[in-house]
Write a structure and sequence with these properties.
This protein has 8 helices and 14 strands. The chain is of the alpha+beta class.
């Protein structure tokens, strides 16, 4: 009871301070203070308290497909009314003939990574019957794959040959029974589905404390960006950083120093944040979100990707950004 009273009293005092600042200086007087609160772990601790974080922090997707290459299975998880991802179906799957992560065209390996589904193909797209009744085209190679100079394309989730025989492996795709594929097609929306391909088990419980710290640091990065704190902003970037256009850290610094020197007022909003631990890693995370950015003379709305790695104290360093 005393603890509840203390929390209520603390909140009331904090709210009173905010109201006083607003009364004296308007919304601009409290905006910076509120932005700073978003960069604190205690806020995110409460936000994550009742959220399923087995796969990470997920706001954009209602379905997760997981392919475990070791067990040759493809599983479908769907979000229920409690925002929990439940396994609703598991399928036997064929994957690439060769073990390991895909690196080059023709190596007969299924890639390890996180992929979106870009397109659904069927007979109307003149799909070859060898691939069954339909196929889902994945986003391999993704931006992280391209950074690592991985080659190849045409990684699909597809069916089995119609009236043909086939070997019990693929050239790198994921193949499941045709009836199962049709069932899968009836139960997912491709723009709300993410595919995770791993080789050592899929359920990697991501600790809530770690996610809280990543989210808090994401918003501290936003804070330094919004309020033109160039030194603190650049401290979030890894020495091996590069943008997806191949811009390296030193050139990036020069560009940002020029922009920050303008001291412009910025509006920066993040929505639909997703944080996944990258398959077969312990400290690399993929962060995506919808970004709204506006200054007096410039406006941007679009998808944002950050690849980050965590040090021993879970401090994030951005090593890839689109």
């Amino acid at each position: 009871m005393k603890l509840i009273l203390f929390v209520v009293l603390s909140f009331s005092l904090y709210a009173s301070d905010i109201l006083s600042e607003y009364r004296k200086n308007g919304i601009q007087g409290i905006e910076k203070q509120l932005d700073l609160e978003l960069a604190k772990t205690h806020y995110w601790d409460t936000q994550l308290q009742d959220i399923d974080t087995r796969f990470g922090y997920i706001k954009s997707y209602t379905s997760i497909l997981t392919c475990d290459k070791n067990t040759s299975t493809l599983a479908l998880y769907q979000k229920d009314s409690n925002n929990t991802f439940l396994e609703v179906q598991q399928y036997n799957a064929f994957t690439g003939k060769s073990n390991g992560d895909k690196k080059v065209e023709g190596d007969l390996k299924t890639p390890l990574g996180i992929y979106n589904i870009k397109q659904r193909l069927d007979k109307d797209n003149k799909l070859d019957p060898f691939y069954g009744p339909l196929a889902f085209v994945t986003s391999y190679p993704n931006l992280y794959d391209k950074m690592r100079k991985k080659k190849g394309s045409g990684i699909w989730v597809h069916g089995l040959p119609i009236n043909q025989k086939r070997e019990k492996f693929t050239k790198g795709c994921i193949a499941i029974d045709n009836e199962a594929l049709i069932c899968l097609d009836n139960n997912i929306s491709i723009d709300k589905t993410v595919l995770i391909i791993n080789s050592n088990g899929i359920k990697q419980e991501v600790p809530k404390k770690k996610l809280s710290k990543i989210l808090a640091q994401l918003y501290m990065w936003r804070f330094t960006w919004k309020y033109n704190e160039i030194v603190s902003y650049l401290a979030f970037y890894d020495k091996e950083f590069q943008k997806t256009d191949r811009t390296k850290l030193e050139a990036f610094k020069i560009q940002k120093e020029f922009v920050f020197a303008k001291n412009e007022k910025k509006t920066i909003i993040f929505k639909n944040i997703n944080i996944f631990r990258y398959p077969n890693t312990q400290n690399i995370y993929q962060v995506t979100f919808d970004e709204y950015y506006k200054t007096k003379y410039f406006k941007y709305e679009g998808k944002k990707l950050l690849m980050i790695k965590l040090d021993n104290e879970n401090n994030m360093k951005i090593f890839l950004e689109n």
